[in-house]
Amino acid sequence: MDTSLTRRAFAVFENALDIEDDAERETWLISTCGSDTPLFSEVKRLLRADAAAERAMPTGGLQPSAGPMPTRIGHYRIVDLLGQGGMGEVFVGARDDGLFDHVVAIKRVRPSLLPETSRALFDRERRVLAKLSHRHIAQLYDGGVDETGAPYFIMELVRGSPIDAYAISADLSPRQIVEKMIAVCEAVQHAHQNLIVHADLKPANILVNDAGDPKVVDFGVARVLRDADDINLHPQTPGYASPQREAGASPTPADDVFALGAILRALLTGEAPRRSKNTVLTSQAIEKSPAFAERSAEWRTNRARAVHGDLDDIIERACAVAPEDRYQAAVALAGDLRAWLETRPIAAHAHDRLYVFRKFVRRRRWRVIAATVAGFGLVVALMLTSTLYVQADFARKQAEARFTEVRSLAKYLLYDVYDRLERTPQTLAMRRDVARVAQGYLNQLADTPSAPADVLLEAADGFARIAELQAGRSRASLGDPQGALENLARADQIAARLQQADPANSSTLDLRARVAMHQAAIAMNSRQELDSATGLLAQAARYIAAIPADTRMAKLLAIQHEMESAILGNWKATYAESEAHARKGIAIAESFPPDPADAREAQYLLARTYDALGEAVYYGVGVPDSIPVYERLVEITSAYLASHPDDMLGQRLTIEARWALGVTLLGVDRPKDGLAELQAAAALVPTLLQYQPEDTGAQRTQRIVYSALAQALAMSGRFDEGVALLREELAKSEEQVRKTNSRPEQVRSYGVTLAMLADLYADNNLAKEACPIYAKAEQVWLDLEKRGVLTQLDRDNSQKMIRGRQQQLKCL
Amino acid sequence: MSEPDRQHADGGGRGAAAARDALLREHYDEFRRVAGRVLNGDAAALQIQPTDLAHEAVIRLSGLDRLDFKGRTHFLSLSARVMRQILIDEIRRMRAAKRQAPPVSTQLPPELGAQSIDLEDLDRALSKLETVAPDHARLVEQRYFAGLTLEEIAEIDGVSVRTVKRQWRAARAWLVAELGHR
User: Fold this and answer.
1) Which of B55, B110, B176 lies closest to A49 in CB terms?
2) Per-residue model confidence (pLDDT) at position A71
3) Is the pLDDT of residue A335 over 50?
4) Mean pLDDT computed over every residue of chain B
5) Domain A398-522 -> CATH class
6) Which of A160, A235, A366, A635 is within CB 3.0–4.6 Å of A209 for a Cys-Cys bond?
7) pLDDT at A676 > cutoff 90
8) Thinking of the domain A65-157, which architecture would CATH place it in?
9) What is the CATH code of the structural domain delimited by A172-342?
10) Long-range contact list for A207-210, CB < 8 A, 24+ apart?
11) Closest-CA residue in chain A for B57?
12) A201: helix, coil or strand?
């Protein structure tokens, strides 16, 4: 393709568009292109294509489509084009399936007025509208979306003219106009009671049929489209829109009342209303209306006089600026109009205008007021009820829509977004945000009083999920065990309520079991509250027992329960028990047919259980016996890592497995093998950290691995390398502790690193170096004690160990 | 997620390319998910309207309720290119993943012949146009992949409606001729 040719052709083409006359354009083109024949033919080619495209759709794009008339829409054959407007086209359609002869109006809306995503709303709304049945409302039968994506409505075909044109052509008197408008008010009231607002009332939407019956068309159509799209795209016709609508507020019944008043005025004056507030009384406007310029002065005066007074007042009130000054319901407006009709003097008396005026004016006034007052209680009650109901329903509908949105959003955030973020490097801060936002949504969900059980369960599950993100061990957690406990409590609270209503529901039991086990894990691992953990695990066991045992759900829970029990046994130093739990868990896990749906979870549980088994054997049976267990663990985790290289869980588990095997090998005096394992573990650490540099779990893993590696180096005769490594780690840990609000586990980790460095010196008979570091480490535990967060485990192990080593080395 | 979107919305014109890149970086995954969701149907043949995707993306990413009208058109304008790229990426990915991937077509508006056309063909045509007249190609993207009107585009790009209309007619004529050749 000759790019410069196309570029030049575009320039010439665009200028050519300014010349409308074909012959003139041709001449201009020939002179512009000169001898450049390729340019000339390229521009001609574009102009031909442009002409074809222009025929199909004018450039503006905002005009209604002038495309070919469709042959069918839905089940209807298109017979005729009734009209075109800003919103789309109206066709006459006939159903000719032989069953019955049915002629309808089909309104096809420009697709751009209804985004694809709003179709569900469109479908729901039109079903509501189809239920609206009233003598003065053009019935909506059906609707849908045609093959070009344009939504359409199938409606009762009203053969007639818009009410303003009808009023002129039929030369309606004010009395006849009021009669028609009462019918319209009743139609609008009926819709309001069915919670439907017209939102675009205007004479063009009120058709009077051959029998003289007014029919309101397009009920709720404006609303469907408004809800579906930006409100500014579909302003109500100026003059009929209330000041609130003009200002962009959502349509309410009060806006329809305003429009009814404006229509009445327009029909009486023969003039379309102006956008600005009508300051001139309707009766005065009649006198000056150009529409009646050809009428006699007497006719105009008569008409003005008929309207003067009560009708002026009624219109003023209907079109009041403040909604609270307006008739609160269309039925109230109809009531006043009817009162006006009934108090009108009969035509026979009309000749004596002065007499009629004097005689009836007070009575009429009184009657109008009386009618209003008599009906007042009822009308007020009715309009209040209907208005409140309409408002309440709007609020409810909104809440419902919001509710569904919130529900899907929370789910989307917690699962789709979070999981994806987790697999994306360096997204911890974002993940924290996502969890925070999702938390907000969940709070909203759980606080919805009318939320059904399944939604509540979902919310509870969401809380449990957030807890997992905050402090779970199968993932790079946000390191917030406190927040996790709060969410777990919240989840359990909801689940407990649900269980009361439906005690045997497996999903609820599953959730409660998971919650209790997570609570137990936090209790033992973060807080060393072993009794509390024991109680929680017993509780979990009861929930699990109530779930049918042969289900996958029950089996997964059973593995997890054995695992947590084994870990707890290790904390409690009841190693034989712990080993039994672990072996039972492994037996279930290894007989478990793999399923991709829970493969990750199953893999995690199996690895963790092996880890617990290794520890139980290490302490309970003997260090050498634990080596095969750890070897198997390394095998399992490495296989998972190999098949899921991007899953940080595999990285993490493999690092921990190799660390465990490595230090165990060091313990049986196989420093070379141990060093190899630890180096393999250390090699994986940077990837993990690169993914989650802020992840405290990953940082701790790094320190633990490096400490062991340093020890292994020293044992392999590379002491200086080991010291350098540990000092580096110590510096990092120290930096974290210096930050304000360092968490106890960070402080503890610092103390452990100090002790490890000291151990390294001590093991290599360097008491002079070791002693001050032990002193520093001891200070760390004392600080923890001062903060009231020193655990029994700290006292029993770390503190005791440090003191023992200090005495051994005679530091003190 | 609405804050960055507002920022995009505020900066038009000169910063548009940078804003678009930022948008791509930030929301690539979300866009992809939207596109993927549409394409992952099991239909024998898929027909999609890119505009729908853009609208869905807007709803997903920013929440229609939280973005004013102008912000939304800006956002759509910026996302047009992203949508197009991702859509094509996803189609290719789907082709690679499924042995019998359904063809993915789209219904062109009446002015472009109202024909059903393979989306990859449309993409190829657009890429070709891009090499010749990038502004014109972008216009098609904004109209077709983001569903903006010429008036909206004129406002976003800060040029007159007349200019946009002339460019649009040139781009459209070229596309009609190009697609008619197939």
Assistant:
1) B176
2) 79
3) yes
4) 65
5) mainly alpha
6) A160
7) yes
8) 2-Layer Sandwich (3.30)
9) 1.10.510.10
10) A207/A138, A207/A158, A207/A160, A207/A161, A207/A162, A207/A163, A208/A160, A208/A161, A208/A162, A208/A163, A208/A166, A208/A170, A208/A180, A209/A158, A209/A159, A209/A160, A210/A159, A210/A160
11) A117
12) coil
Q: Do β-strands A88-95 and A76-84 pair in parallel, antiparallel, or remain unpaired?
A: antiparallel
Q: A49 and B72 in contact by Cβ < 8 A?
A: no
Q: Which residue has the higher pLDDT, A60 or A521?
A: A521
A555 touches A592 (CB < 8 A) = yes
Chain A interface mutation, best of B62, B75, B132, B182, highest count of A Cβ atoms under 10 Å: B132
pLDDT > 70: what percent of chain A? Answer: 73
Tokens of A316: 């003023």
The full DSSP string for A417-471 is: IHHHHHTSTT-HHHHHHHHHHHHHHHHHHHH-TT--HHHHHHHHHHHHHHHHHHH
Range B90-117 average pLDDT: 62
- Contacting residues of A for B150, CB less than 8 Å apart: 59-61
A408 has pLDDT over 50: yes
> Helices A297-307 and A174-193 meet at what angle, rounded to 10?
40
The ipTM (two decimal places) reads 0.72
Average pLDDT estimate for A158-170: 86
d(Cα A435, Cα A428) in Å, to the nearest integer? 10
Q: Each residue of A466-505: pLDDT tens digit?
A: 888 777 766 556 767 888 898 899 899 989 988 998 888 9
Flag whether pLDDT at A513 surpasses 90: yes
Tell me which residue range forms the domain holding B17: 2-180
Give the whole-angstrom CA distance, residue A432 versus residue A184: 57
**Structural domain count, chain B:** 1
Highest mean pLDDT among A190-199, A232-241, A457-466: A457-466
For chain A, domain boundaries:
3-56, 65-157, 172-342, 398-522
- Pick left, alpha or beta for residue A369 (phi over 0 → left; psi -120 to 50 → alpha; otherwise beta): alpha
Q: What is the mean pLDDT of chain A?
A: 77
Q: Which two tokens stand for residue A454?
A: 């399944």
Q: Enumerate the residues of chain B whose CB falls inside 8 A of the CB of residue A71.
A: none
Q: Which residue of B has its CA nearest to A423?
A: B29
Contact A14 B131 (CB under 8 A): no
Size of interface A-B (CB pairs under 8 A): 100
Residue from A116, A427, A434 whose CB has the most chain B CBs within 10 Å, to mutate = A116
- Does an H or E element contain A78, and which? strand A76-84
Q: Are A299 and A325 in contact (CB under 8 A)?
A: no
